Amino acid sequence: MNPELEARLRRLGARVDAAADEAATRHRVVPLHKATGEQATIVPKLEPVVATRGRPARFYRVLAVSAAAAAVAIALGVVIGRSAEEGAERPFASGTELAAVATSEPEPESTEEPIRSPSTTMTRPATPTSTTPRSSPTTTASTPTTSSTTLPESTDEANTTAPRACPSYRVNDSLPLRLCDRGEMVRQVQQRLAETVAPELLVDGFFGPSTQAAVLAFQQQNPGLEVDGLVGPATMTALFAGATASAEV
Amino acid sequence: VREVRLNAVNGGRPTTSFEDFIAGAAVRLRRALIARYGVELGVEACAEATAWAWVNRDRLLAMSNPVGYLFRVGQTAVRSQTRWQHAPLFPADRGSAEPSMPDPDLEAALAALSPDQRVAVMLVHAHGYRYAEAAELLDIPVSTLKNHLHRGAKRLRRTLERRS
């Protein structure tokens, strides 16, 4: 190995180290307050690899919105068709039945109940219908005889546009594990948490709010740990020290 | 109280020793895994190996060559992850992402090596590990490492001469 090539290789080694540090920080350092509120500003270069393993949160959101739109469109067509048939014969029947529904349900403000829309009670008044909860808001607008004061405007925010805790999850290999991390280490921590404090915790390798709650519970149960929701060396050692201790007993 | 309990669990070892071991091993592991798989996958593989180390630390501390075993763990992690994907070449995936890479010839020549040769050359010549250290990290005998180095360096030299 001649010295010129050796020097080139040394420089390459330094560059590789720098690139690795940069990649590690790219995965690790996420401004959490930003990640929870709005879209994460940092788009990591690892996205193609992450996308095959991460949760497709945006995909589910798009799916939910499109399903809601389809359901609304179908319900609209049904309502228009039925009202065109029956509207001339019994114009006030739906209003009275709606009043009956409103009296039988004392809480129209709750999110799920008023979605049992006047169109379905109009067509099938006897059965308590089990329609999808997304079909209400435009049907209330389309039926002319409904007293729309008893119905809240729209309840779709709870289903479609609720902010997820983490828009994206990032690989983390260093010990302060925190909200919105993911990876094998998170999975192992979740497994230990499920064995100790939170038996119902889903062990999936994603550090979500439920995992954070479990971490907080574990830290409260173990005096000497700082209750901060982060899995640092102290919490990690306490978790797996318990594992080895129970295994020895 | 907690410290005492942990020391008892750890067999009297101070609790910081395992953290120190992991911290030191992670640097070497990351270099080796990056030399084998590239930066992005190497960082991920190092993360998985570190996580495995934390969970199986009792097994690990009983081993004669824990770092070499962790290197295998990282390789297994990458293999299970990239089975259905194209394995990225060592520098080629970074060359396009970073236009300021000043030595494309060398990186292309390194990418043409076999993975074993590339890891050996990178560890010994680029990062400056001694033969014994690199062989322990890769969990291979020193003579095998020398073979990889010799053939890798020869091929590297030829490729570079042909390019220039």
What does this structure look like?
The complex is a heterodimer of chains A (249) and B (164). In chain A, α8 (184-196) crosses α9 and α8 (184-196) packs across α10. Chain A has helices spanning 3-28, 32-37, 47-53, 57-86, 93-104, 118-123, 137-142, 184-196, 209-221, 233-248, and strands spanning 170-171, 181-182. A two-stranded parallel ribbon of chain A has the order 1-2. Residues 29-55 and 90-162 of chain A have low confidence and may be disordered. By secondary structure, chain A is an all-alpha fold. Chain A is flat, with a radius of gyration of 28 Å. Chain B is mostly helical and 164 residues long. Chain B contains ten helices and no strands. In chain B, 45% of the residues are buried.
Write the layout of secondary structure elements.
The complex is a heterodimer of chains A (249) and B (164).
Chain A: H1 3-28, H2 32-37, H3 47-53, H4 57-86, H5 93-104, H6 118-123, H7 137-142, E1 170-171, E2 181-182, H8 184-196, H9 209-221, H10 233-248
Parallel strand pairs in A: 1-2
Helix pairs in contact in A: 8-9, 8-10
Chain B: H1 2-9, H2 16-37, H3 39-55, H4 57-61, H5 66-81, H6 92-97, H7 104-111, H8 115-126, H9 131-138, H10 142-163
From the structure above, extract its key features.
heterodimer, A: about 250 residues, mainly alpha, 10 helices, about 0% strand, flat, B: about 160 residues, globular, disordered N terminus
Q: In percent, how much strand structure appears in the residues of chain A?
A: under 5%
| Widest sheet: strand ordering of chain A | 1-2
Low-confidence parts of chain B lasting 5 or more residues at pLDDT below 50? 1-15, 91-100
Q: What count of helical segments of chain B does DSSP give?
A: 10
Number of strands of chain B: 0
Provide the succession of SSEs of chain B: HHHHHHHHHH
Residues in helix, % of chain A: 40-55%
User: Class by helix and strand content of chain B?
Assistant: mainly alpha
End-to-end Cα distance of chain B: 66 Å
Tell me the span between the first and last alpha carbons of chain A. 56 Å
Shape, principal axes of CA atoms of chain A: flat
Radius of gyration from the alpha-carbon trace of chain A, in angstroms: 28 Å
Proportion of helical residues of chain B = over 70%
What Rg of chain B is obtained from the alpha carbons, in whole angstroms? Answer: 18 Å
**Oligomerization status of the protein chains:** heterodimer
Strand content of chain B is under 5%
Mean pLDDT of chain A: 64
